[in-house]
Amino acid sequence: MTVKTPEHILETTRSLFNARGEGSVTASDVALELGISTGNLYYHFKGKEALHLALFAKMQREMVVLMGPAVQPPGLFTGDRSTTSIETSWLFLTVILEKMLKYRYLYENPRGVMARFTDIDRGFRRLLRMKQKVCGNIAEELIPIAGRDTDPQLATVTNTMTLCMNCWLSYDPILNPQDPEALLVHRGVLQILSHCTPYLGNEQRNFYNICEQLYQQMVDEEATPLD
What we know:
The protein is mainly α. The protein is built from 11 helices and no strands. Helix 1 packs across helix 4, helix 4 packs antiparallel against helix 5 and helix 5 packs across helix 10. The longest helix is centred in the middle third of the chain and has 25 residues, at 118-142. The protein is globular.
């Protein structure tokens, strides 16, 4: 019998949680998928709760690594202007949504998960505050000072962007259950940045229009049947 490492066990568990929903998967299901006995699984993780907490801790570490540089000086927007601010924002948000999608089961019912696990409750709140900071930095960069009018307006845009980011994975699949993950992510980034659109300058708006064209191209390609 092949020895299963803790990392392999967690990846298998994550795949099952994503495919079936966390509430529908038992520790025995994980062991069966791995081809090991429940006793061997318990050698590494003492049941489903331990698997759940270990997966969340892994996700939290990965998200902090991704978002950390964006919330600390100098942040996303440094002196290197080889890409525009909107390009930088687009690419960064794509990476974040792709990482969230990897653990999408956690975003189907976050309040329910938070109510069951104190550590996950605290961790989710920390990650949400980091996402809020990221969105705030992006909005502050993309929206010209003259277009903000007041800080409360910037705060409103930031909160709306954060809400969209955090809820997108539970919202969009309901409307578009057959769409591939690439479209889900691309559409999510487009939606998040759309909250800045009324304030963008010409150059940034032009790039945003290009992003919309790229999105439509992806939609058209997915809708075209293979010969």
